[in-house]
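User: Write out your own:

AI:
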Amino acid sequence: MSSKRKIGLFVAAIIIALGILAAPRAAEVADIKVYFSPNGGCAEAIVNEIKNAKSEILVQAFHFTSAPIAKSLVEAHKRGVKVSAILDESQRTAEYSSATFLANSKIPTYIDAAHATAHNKIIIIDGGTVITGSFNFTRAAEKKNAENLLVIKSPELAKKYIENWNSHKGHSEVYEPRY
């Protein structure tokens, strides 16, 4: 079986597992990009998607230490894109975290402490693009770990992720930056 076919089957299985695909449209399946690390361009793909954002970026992250991703979110915020982030409780006390950088840049930043671990790794852009996978938003994920990242252009999928994001925001607390 060719690697393109394997990737296609892998992506289709993920979409079916998410329960969003009853009868796939070719455009939905065709507009999915897959990245792998280490050194597979995952962080660069995220930064490029953020650079193209026009109206809104919603982030959910377990570990978030990637300077390029954090800087691109702040740049988007400065361009007038509405940016908000929900992070795992561990980010309050982590030695290295982008939480303080985001909050000090006036990006609404929240802590989801309602779960043992808020293990999401999601970015939703402009209500139509979902970035997800095992890839933590960290340098180690890009340089050392075996990770995967999907960039999926699907308003239908994005709607489900936005609903979930809002549900988590509802029980999250505003992050108070460390100075």
